[in-house]
Design brief:
The complex is a heterodimer of chains A (about 350) and B (about 350).
Chain A (H helix, E strand, L loop, with lengths): L2 H21 L12 E7 L6 E7 L5 E6 L6 E2 L15 E5 L8 H12 L13 E5 L15 H9 L18 E2 L9 E2 L1 E8 L5 E8 L4 E3 L6 E3 L11 H7 L13 E7 L5 H18 E2 L9 E6 L9 H21 L17
Parallel strand pairs in A: 5-6, 13-15
Antiparallel strand pairs in A: 1-2, 2-5, 3-15, 4-6, 7-8, 9-10, 10-13, 11-12, 11-14
Helix pairs in contact in A: 2-3, 5-6
Chain B lengths: L1 H14 L14 E7 L6 E17 L6 E2 L12 E8 L8 H11 L4 E3 L2 E3 L4 E3 L15 H9 L18 E2 L9 E2 L2 E7 L5 E9 L3 E4 L4 E4 L11 H7 L11 E8 L5 H18 E2 L9 E6 L9 H22 L9 H4 L2
Helix pairs in contact in B: 2-3, 5-6
The chains are: A alpha+beta (about 350), B alpha+beta (about 350).
């Protein structure tokens, strides 16, 4: 073989090896947790869509942290430790503001059609919780929003493959950094991360990031995507806030970060709520400001109980906060520009 | 020439007062008093309001010790508080509030209830009983009375004092690896006159992180005096979770803005994000993390609650970091400033 041919062959070999090792199990997203499937459906007419997290069926424990001031949610009351429900079948994250809650109806229908064994008695109903973010202003046509059909298709598309991230599903129309004006916002998206500890404990997260505030990498304190100055450079709202610079008055019709964290640990319903509460700290660390009067920030936590080990709830909660912050940072790093809103990936890496 | 220099010097002095208060007493009408016990490193801190203020609370840690927090629910009637007490001594330390109530009654301050005035004094405690010897020594009503009597509008003393006297952090690595913490305070004063400030007694399971660069300020110690970083310990699985009964971060954020009771609750909720940013992990089952909010309403300007809440979170994380950097070693537990040598 001549030299260029050898080089070509070697490059091809490396590419194949890389592809194989990736398929062999370097899934560092939510679907690395056994029994968890994720499906997106993105609308073609406007950048918006929905994302469904499906659980394998059977008992699990779920909890909730709802701390943003402008939420849009469904079946969250039953996640309280004092409520009776002892299983959750799916969580839906959707764009489209309160209209987007319709997606959960499609997921109900899909589960009803495909889980005859589980619901064969006809008296049991699927438990599908949902939360929405507000992306109606993005891309023109606000009357286009995810509906029951979107939810049905996302459920049908759900797989255990590594989760697609960025401008897709519930993150398709998501934006961040709106405190200096909508025209200076940057693209948000959907992101996922997971950690696997020696011994078998796993914790993963998926987040659709549509915050009023900036997204900050908690490991360095640096802004990853957020409000831009007049010249397009990152303005850093932390600095603007502290100096009293004039900021745009926040509107409830533009924002919200919604997320699901899942562990394979076995937890009580009360502990699942503690994990949701601690996971919410991941929003605090990576979104500045978070939980504002114009954000409906909501976090679901689900414990599948598939792992037989013993884990302290504080450890699971700490890991949940960590992976949720990582998922949020990935959501904006992997996002691509849409409807004229630029993404962090559009700029050359410094 | 000399006149010019003098004028410049005078201008400089006018622009930057010699004693700029960067603590919670920068909020007009807020006074703070500490009382530290001599027998064991523990004590209490009273945040006294000149008159009253609208109050709120965010209680999200898993092992709280509190008083009058239900009253602060926006659905409930009373919307003004007279003082907040932060104390060591675990649930025993709640007694400190009784002394503050007595001091307020003697000064005829409280919620008008018929012929009498009932002082409204929410309180939260932290768990410092194992620190420095005899766990039967804890803040009593006398501590709360003396701290109220000592309250002034001077810049707040920080470090190993008052409710922070027995506070420690970095307990995710097991016994004997913690770092001394204390009480810290910070204030943000905007050109338009809005003031948002915090005071926090930091006794967390977790490490203290500087959110501006992600670095550990104080926490689980390695044998060589460096920090192990609890975030890494948790991921690696080499950590032993701390028990309830050793921890808790408690604090107060105050503003001179005018807020409804519901918005004061939102301010407390957003301020709580300051704990999440500066403490890792925070809100564990072994922490009783609680933060109160106060709005004095003495400023005539208007500010969006999102701005006030965002600044409250910033002031809280600043105060948490100061609690760790201002602390001094006590009872064999080294402070960060002593490790740095």
């Amino acid at each position: 073989m001549k030299r260029p041919a050898i080089r070509k062959f070697l490059i091809a070999l490396i590419a194949v090896a890389a592809a194989c090792s990736h398929e062999a199990g370097t899934n560092d997203t939510l679907t690395s947790i056994g029994g968890v499937r994720v499906g997106h459906h993105t609308l073609a007419e406007r950048p918006t869509g929905c994302t469904v997290v499906l659980f394998g069926g059977g008992a699990n424990a779920a909890g909730l942290a709802q701390r943003g001031s402008a939420p849009g949610t469904r079946d969250t009351d039953l996640l309280r430790p004092t409520s009776a429900a002892d299983r959750i079948d799916a969580v839906v994250l959707s764009g489209g503001s309160a209209f987007g809650l319709d997606t959960a109806n499609g997921v109900m229908r899909w589960i009803d059609e495909h889980n005859g064994g589980l619901f064969s008695r006809g008296t049991d109903v699927p438990t599908v919780a949902a939360a929405v973010l507000i992306d109606l202003w993005v891309g023109g046509k606000p009357q286009i929003r995810p509906d029951a059909d979107c939810g049905y298709r996302a459920a049908a598309a759900a797989t255990t493959a590594p989760v697609a991230q960025g401008t897709v599903g519930a993150g398709a129309g998501a934006t961040v950094g709106k405190m200096t004006g909508l025209d200076r916002a940057m693209k948000g998206g959907i992101g996922s991360a997971a950690v696997a500890r020696a011994g078998g404990l796993r914790v993963g997260a998926i987040a659709a990031v549509n915050a009023l505030g900036d997204v900050v990498d908690p490991q360095s304190g640096a802004v990853v995507a957020g409000a831009r100055a007049e010249d397009g450079s990152p303005a850093d709202v932390r600095k603007l806030l502290r100096t009293g610079a004039p900021l745009r008055r926040s509107s409830v019709g533009e924002n919200t970060t919604i997320a699901v964290v899942v562990t394979n640990a076995r937890l009580s319903k009360a502990d699942a709520n503690r994990v949701a509460l601690m996971a919410d700290d991941g929003i605090s660390r990576s979104v500045v400001p978070a939980h504002t009067s114009a954000d409906g920030d909501t976090v679901f936590a689900v414990a599948t109980g598939a792992w037989n080990g013993v884990a302290d709830v504080s450890v699971v909660g700490a890991l949940a906060a960590d992976v949720l912050a990582e998922a949020i940072v990935r959501a904006v790093r992997k996002a691509t520009g849409a409807a004229g809103v630029p993404a962090a990936s559009d700029r050359p890496r410094q | 020439m000399r006149t010019t220099i003098l004028a410049a010097a005078l201008t400089l002095q006018a622009a930057q007062p010699a004693h700029t208060n960067t603590t919670i007493t920068a909020v007009p009408g807020i006074k703070v008093g500490h009382f530290t016990l001599a027998e064991r490193p523990t004590g209490c801190t009273v945040i006294l309001i000149d008159g009253d203020a609208v109050g709120g609370v965010s209680q999200r840690g898993g092992a709280p010790g509190t008083r009058e927090t239900d009253l602060l629910n926006p659905l409930n009637m009373v919307d003004k508080v007279n003082a907040i007490v932060l104390a060591g001594g675990s649930a025993f330390g709640l007694e400190a509030a009784t002394g503050t109530v007595r001091w307020l009654e003697e000064h005829n301050l409280g919620w008008p209830a018929g012929a009498s005035r009932v002082p409204i004094v929410p309180a939260a405690v932290l768990f410092d009983l194992p620190v420095g010897g005899n766990p039967r020594i804890r803040p009593t009503a006398e501590c709360g009375y003396k701290a109220a009597a000592a309250a002034t509008s001077a810049p707040v003393d920080e470090g190993t004092v008052g409710a922070g006297a027995g506070a420690t952090v970095g307990k995710f690595g097991g016994a004997g690896r913690s770092t001394k913490s204390g009480i810290g305070s910070a204030a943000i004063v905007l050109p338009n006159g809005l003031v948002v400030a915090a005071i926090v007694a930091v006794n967390a399971v977790g490490d203290i992180i500087d959110p501006s660069n992600g670095k550990v300020v104080a926490g689980v110690r390695n044998p060589d005096g460096t920090f192990a970083d609890a975030r890494k310990l948790v991921r690696a699985g080499g950590s032993s979770p701390s028990r309830a009964g050793e921890n808790t971060t408690i604090g107060v954020v105050a503003t001179n803005a005018r807020l409804s009771k519901a918005l004061a609750a939102r301010m407390a909720l957003m301020a709580d994000d300051g704990y999440a940013r500066a403490i890792a992990p925070s809100h564990t089952n072994g922490d009783g993390d609680t933060i109160f909010s106060l709005a004095t309403g003495r400023w005539d300007g208007t500010a969006d609650i999102t701005i006030i809440g965002a600044l409250a979170a910033e002031a809280v994380s600043d105060a948490v970091v100061r609690a760790a950097t201002q602390a001094t070693s006590v009872a064999g537990i080294p402070a960060a400033r002593d490790l740095r040598r």
